[in-house]
Automatic annotation (TrEMBL):
The lineage of its organism: Eukaryota, Fungi, Dikarya, Ascomycota, Pezizomycotina. It comes from the Eukaryota. Gene3D superfamilies: NAD(P)-binding Rossmann-like Domain, UDP-galactose 4-epimerase, domain 1. This is NAD(P)-binding protein. SUPFAM superfamilies: NAD(P)-binding Rossmann-fold domains. It comes from Staphylotrichum tortipilum. Residues 50-157 form the NAD(P)-binding domain.
Length: 325
């Protein structure tokens, strides 16, 4: 019976991927789901997975021994990038090395749009990482490791999440004086629902895609940040201003207020979001440089469902929308 391992089920992508993989699995497939700390997962969620036949265990990308233990006897392993910016390629190397040592045949990975800038041609593979936008850099390195591993692979490159705009960026608007300070230059991006990305990942794990294939995972339409802003405010009644800024201006504004340049060691205790300067700037840069304009059919092709529109996805975040005092 083929054993499929899905790591990171404590996160937003991993938990959805686990549920969907169980929903669409063949009868002869069995699953092992891992998280760094099972005590942080809802007991009902873990019990539900176990009731459907899945094993659940702890494993950590920074602990190769824990990876070797859960990968033993696996046909495929799926792993999700963490928030450890700059350290993620080392974590990926640990996963790949443990997978190869355990005799795994195939590896699946959640990458990010822009990784193709360093991987999709021989010229791209020779490109200096410093010339690639900040956020894709770790993913470029990880994809290179995967392709060089000799394992079969499936990679999905996700666009930025709709969810981040509603539940993350919006939390800074009051701090900014009832303004969204924005550096997308009015360009459009086909933001994707995290829920859809999770289902695609579950589909890749169970083998719905041919080996050695890469998918760009997008939402159903390209929209501007101003459209998202105006929609959220039409729902909440919030009166605020959308302010266009260039990168240097935006960086200076946030740096003056203590936003750090280092995501791992920075102090975010007095700030509305845990997002370092390079990360913040690159979110807008990916849209401004037209990296997110294309709309693909990856969600429907792999999950059988049309991707969620932001209006539908935002319903669960309406309680978080800012409101005037």
């Amino acid at each position: 019976m083929p054993k499929l391992v899905l790591t990171g089920v404590g996160g937003g992508i991993g938990g959805i991927a686990a549920d969907y993989a169980l929903e669409i699995a063949r009868p002869d497939q069995k699953f092992l789901f891992t998280s760094t700390d099972l005590s942080k997962l809802p007991v009902s969620k873990v019990d539900g997975w176990k009731a459907k036949g899945a094993e659940v265990a702890e494993a950590n990308y920074d602990d190769p021994e824990s990876l070797s233990k859960v990968f033993k006897g696996a046909e495929a392993v799926a792993f999700i990038s963490t928030w450890a910016l700059g350290h993620r390629p080392r974590q990926a190397a640990n996963v790949i090395e443990a997978a190869k040592a355990a005799g795994v045949n195939r590896i699946c990975y959640t990458s990010f749009i822009g990784a193709g800038l360093g991987n999709d041609s021989e010229e791209a593979r020779q490109r200096d990482l410093k010339t690639i936008p900040f956020l894709p850099r770790d993913h470029v390195q990880t994809e290179r490791l995967i392709r060089a591993s000799g394992l079969q692979w499936n990679i999905q490159r996700d666009y930025l999440y709709q969810d981040n705009c509603a539940a993350f960026f919006s939390q800074s608007w009051k701090f900014c004086g009832d303004r969204w300070l924005n550096n997308t230059d009015g360009r459009r991006g086909a933001y994707v629902a995290r829920e859809d990305c999770g289902r695609v990942f579950g589909a890749l794990l169970v083998g719905r895609a041919p080996p050695n294939t890469c998918y760009t995972v997008t939402g159903p339409e390209a929209v501007t940040d101003r459209e998202l802003f105006e929609y959220m405010n039409s729902v909440s009644g919030y009166k605020a201003e959308f302010v266009d800024m260039v990168d240097d201006e935006l960086a200076a504004w946030w740096r003056e207020r203590g936003l750090p340049d280092d995501a791992i060691n920075g102090d975010f205790s007095k700030l509305p979001m845990k997002l370092c300067i390079p990360d913040l700037l690159c979110c807008g840069e990916m849209v401004a440089q037209s990296h997110m304009e294309e709309v693909t059919d990856a969600v429907e092709k792999l999950s059988g469902r049309k991707p969620l529109r932001y209006q539908e996805n935002f319903k669960k975040y309406e309680h978080l929308f800012p409101r005037n005092d």
